[in-house]
Specification:
The structure is a homodimer of 398-residue chains.
Chain A (H helix, E strand, L loop, with lengths): L5 H5 L9 H9 L3 E4 L11 H8 L15 H13 L9 E4 L1 H13 L5 E6 L4 H9 L2 E6 L11 H7 L4 E7 L11 H14 L2 E5 L25 E6 L12 E4 L3 H13 L5 H10 L4 H24 L13 E5 L5 H10 L6 E4 L1 E2 L13 E5 L4 H17 L5
Parallel strand pairs in A: 1-10, 3-4, 3-5, 5-6, 6-7
Antiparallel strand pairs in A: 2-8, 7-8, 9-12, 11-12
Chain lengths: 398, 398
């Protein structure tokens, strides 16, 4: 029988999905599972987007332009202008989600064995994209002690080689929720400039910024037009993960021209998702105010409850809808599986993501878990009670 | 300034798109351009699919399963059963168009520098996918003399090396319209079995088979379950290119399990497109009867008109909606550009695809063009008059 490629063998399984069979088994036993493990928001998709879909009247659903429908790209420039990001429709390639944007960006700027520096913990699928493109992710550990702030620039400089092509940063961060400051992004900008590197920024949680903070984009950096590549998505912004609409954005003409060849090879991004996303740009500000208020309330429930638990440390992140917390455990994979297999509190348990899946340095994240606060406040409160009870009786407790 | 990857530099520009600026310039001069260069059907998307979109009522447009919505995959098994292809929902990964299916399939079975044999002329984007995945397309020329039938098996065997992993065949064929016979597919099957190769089949034009012929799928082959991988798409079937819904299908569990890791890394295929595609499975047979009758009428107009032109030879293909014809010219790139830049018949011209873009052997296709018969009969008749007049006065005529 013909075999599988090395690439196929090395593709990482999702750290979230490997626990799914245990969650399914728990449900079969009648245990209720609170899902704190996923990045799928429960917030309704804006009406204005759904109306556009219901009113779709084209007779032939044609390929769109490979860079995306022009009217959508033009309207996107207004969305970005509101965020003080000044671009034209030509600086945008609409993609099948942020995932495709990262894959095209990485393939455009990196060859097999080239290196990309990423602060860890990081979004687990970056591993998948890098294996897929044959490139190497070089992790720089950030620390839970300062809430996963930007690691010292010296740490980046230590690992820069002739093969280093890019620094990738997710801001606000998945999995930590950390919001990088203007000053931190500027520091990264100077580093990219000094070493002639691309600065790739995944800013799909741009709207999810709390406590009066402002999001500072790599696109706000002066004099770095040729270095910066923005990866974006409507998935979280409009609670529209199923649209599969993202974007790769850069003012570097050479990069965009090469990226267009990858975009043309896959013909076009999804038409329905683009139509809905174009309409979604008119989502009223009140929608975002409500969503943000909701997430702040949820975050506060989780962070406050976690820090009251014995032996638990949970930073108070100012973005996205995740926290990474340190628990008094030594094997987060075992703990998360145990929660599903061996524990319940009155017939209920929680599903968490072991943080090991978000590190590429072996051994890291073993005492950390990621919690997504994508459930309502009442379910989150109950989830925290369950987690508290679980930690108290977990046999692998430190 | 940081540069572009070698891969990015080597990605081929689409052979169709490089003429677009000349077509745009012609239109600016007031010349009407008949587009015989594209694979975008003008047939309406079935009502039943459009109704499903207009009735979409989910509140949150969530990620679907990475392999695709289960109800869609289950219904797809009924569609395939009707085509005598017996698979289960687990044998299917729904993809963002046939394009993603090919990329995932190639990445699953081939590492950089591995080889895939493809009869040429072939769908130009296979070059893009192979550069993207770092793999090598090894072309085997087919001949216009026998209508681009399967080249002799000896020609395949001559180029098989230890790096050969797969044979890729498009049936019915884009760009030639050739429909491979049962006997030819069986021959390929024996070859794949003998040399332990994957047989990758792009069958996105399955419905477009004329003159009472039957489509014979690689999935109909006996004893080749582990070798065969089917690449499919709803784009042409339902004139729904913008849905961006395809599928990778195989009964080889190891292949599907590795492919799922690539599918998980990009999270999920588009939700709206899946909902529309699921509904589209109920498209009445009358739709396909009408579409086929229309394409046969169009093909007949083109083939008959072409063969009446002096020095032109056009096979009479039995599938898809393309023909590759030989013209009395020596540089089809120049001819197609000349049609747009320097020629018009009473203010009208035609846009064709030079066949050079469908060959990877240098020098081939220079006296051939691909014509897509995606215009109505009346426009096609006029297009043929224009082409006839153009060939008569073309200065580069052989």
């Amino acid at each position: 029988m013909p075999g599988i490629s090395k690439k196929g063998q090395n593709m990482p399984a999702s750290p979230i999905r490997k626990l799914v069979p245990f969650a399914d088994a728990a449900k079969k036993r009648g245990v209720k599972v609170y899902h704190l493990n996923i990045g799928q928001p429960d917030i309704p998709t804006p009406d204005v987007a759904m109306e556009a879909i219901r009113n779709f009247r084209q007779t032939v659903v044609e390929y769109s332009h490979s860079a995306g429908i022009l009217s959508y790209r033009q309207k996107l420039t207004q969305y970005y202008a509101k965020n003080n990001i000044k671009i034209t429709a030509d600086d945008i390639i609409v993609t099948a989600g942020g995932s495709e944007a990262i894959l095209i960006a990485v393939s455009t700027i990196m060859d097999p064995d080239d290196e990309m520096i990423v602060p860890e913990p990081f979004y687990a699928n970056y591993n998948g994209f890098s294996v897929n493109a044959g490139v190497k992710v070089v992790p720089i550990p950030s620390s839970i002690e300062n809430g996963f702030g930007l690691p010292p620039i010296e740490d980046f400089e230590k690992v820069i080689t002739s093969r280093t092509k890019a620094i990738l940063v997710c801001n606000p961060n998945n999995p930590t929720g950390y919001l990088y400051s203007k000053e931190e992004i500027e520091r990264l900008g100077r580093l990219a400039k000094k070493h002639d590197l691309y600065l790739l920024a995944d800013e799909v949680y741009r709207e999810f910024v709390y406590d009066g903070e402002q999001h500072f984009s790599v696109m706000h950096l002066d004099g770095l037009d040729d270095n910066c590549i923005l990866v974006d998505s409507v998935s979280k912004r409009y609670s529209a993960c199923g649209f599969r609409i993202g974007a790769m954005i850069s003012k570097n003409k050479e990069v965009m021209s090469a990226a267009m060849k990858f975009a043309q090879a896959r013909l076009s991004p999804p038409t329905f998702g683009q139509v809905a996303s174009e309409a979604a740009i008119d989502t009223p500000e009140s929608y975002f105010r409500e969503v943000k208020a909701e997430y702040v309330a949820r975050r506060d429930v989780v962070v406050q409850a976690m820090n009251k638990m014995d032996g638990v440390f949970c930073p108070n992140p100012r973005g996205a809808f995740y926290v990474v917390a340190r628990l008094p455990i030594t094997d987060s994979d075992h703990f998360c599986q145990w929660l599903l297999e061996d524990f319940n509190l009155n017939g209920e348990t929680v599903m968490l993501a072991p943080a090991t899946g978000f590190y590429s340095t072996p051994g890291m994240g073993k005492d950390e878990v990621r919690i997504s606060y994508v459930l309502n406040v009442s379910d989150l409160k109950r989830s925290m009670e369950i987690l508290d009870a679980a930690i108290k009786v977990y046999p692998g407790r430190k």
